[in-house]
Amino acid sequence: MLKKILRSYDYSIIAVYFLLCLFGLIMIYSASMVVAVQWFGYPADFFYEKQKINLLVGFLFFLFFAIFPYKAYKNKTFLISITLAAVLGLFAVVLFGHVTNNAQSWIQLGARKIQPSEFAKISVIIYLSAVYSKKQSYINQLNKGVLPPLLFLVFVCFLIAMEPDNGTALITLLIGMTIIVCSGMRFRTIMKLVMLGLLLIAVLSPFLILKFEKIFTENRMGRFAGYLDPFGTGQNEGFQLVNSYLAIGSGGLKGLGLGQSVQKLGYLPEAHTDFIMAIIAEELGAFGVAFVLVGLGYIVLRGLFIATRSKDPFGAMLAIGISCMIGIQSFINLGGMSGLIPITGVPLPFISYGGSSILVLSILMGILANVAMFNNYEEKFKAEKAVPVPHAEPSQPNANRKWGAQRRTFK
């Protein structure tokens, strides 16, 4: 039994997860050593050592969730617990959260900080997947099958936006909508949801106009100004994006060499967090960027493949939610640092510095590995049961007697 289980794990996706985490650890050291000394007065390996501890803890959580059966998450008590934990954690942030980079997104626990909005993604993925998998028989009934879980999603996104953390709120909303679209609803039901969303925006538009200055603050509008005209606002709003362009352009095909970045010397803010890909492009060139993109792309596509193979709707939606979260977050991070979309302050999965981020990703990757293991195990187990047991060959005397009986019958 144990050998069958161990043989059923998808070791390719596990290997890519470990490789990306280790690569990210190396790049965090390279990108943060100057910042740690010059800006904070820390040792050069300060952020490297902290991330190393984060990764070790994350690996332990990964192993636990890779072994723990994912089907247990459908338990009603467990679902109530994770939803309450998510809501209470977000309320705690709004009431007495720690402010960093103009966002009240963290709770200080002794010497460490946690970001409840990151853990809320786990609650959203598990809760929506479990509830919609149970509602398959009436999933197209709007009042009974669709709206109750959707209200939870909207409420969680609202609390995250109140911090304010619009990037994480957008990612959480997109994750939830992806699970809803893939839950088995008819196209007509999805269009009804779209119409309800448009109606809600129309109802809230007067409030948005009245509270325009509070909602669209100078800092938020500055991000749009830096996005639309980075070089015209290069001394203020566009400063970060312009220096990201310089880092990307300097790297070329092969890069300047590991540790040889110029932009990390104080020119590019958040070099070891949101803009770490710019440092990768500068030091390792197109080859380093390709390594990260191929790794992230493989995890996303492999996760979607795992979803298509799952006979269990809950497992399929879990795999879809996890894969899409990694894909959406990667797109938003890379789009911001390349000027494709406005900067949102979202970390690059597995690569950027951050304890809450790597812990959440490790938990979700463990769940994805467990879904894949169950798929493979059930397929192999059913295949073994389906193979007919071969009959024993008759012994020579029996065969002779049978042949003799056939000869007598023929005569």
From TrEMBL:
Membrane topology of this protein: Multi-pass membrane protein
Catalytic activity: [GlcNAc-(1->4)-Mur2Ac(oyl-L-Ala-gamma-D-Glu-L-Lys-D-Ala-D-Ala)](n)-di-trans,octa-cis-undecaprenyl diphosphate + beta-D-GlcNAc-(1->4)-Mur2Ac(oyl-L-Ala-gamma-D-Glu-L-Lys-D-Ala-D-Ala)-di-trans,octa-cis-undecaprenyl diphosphate = [GlcNAc-(1->4)-Mur2Ac(oyl-L-Ala-gamma-D-Glu-L-Lys-D-Ala-D-Ala)](n+1)-di-trans,octa-cis-undecaprenyl diphosphate + di-trans,octa-cis-undecaprenyl diphosphate + H(+)
The protein's Enzyme Commission number: 2.4.99.28
Keywords for the protein's UniProt record, in alphabetical order: Cell cycle, Cell division, Cell shape, Glycosyltransferase, Membrane, Peptidoglycan synthesis, Transferase, Transmembrane, Transmembrane helix
Swiss-Prot/TrEMBL GO biological process terms: cell division
Subcellular location: Membrane
Highest taxon, organism lineage: Bacteria
Region (Disordered): 388-411
Function in brief: Peptidoglycan polymerase that is essential for cell division.
Name of protein: Probable peptidoglycan glycosyltransferase FtsW
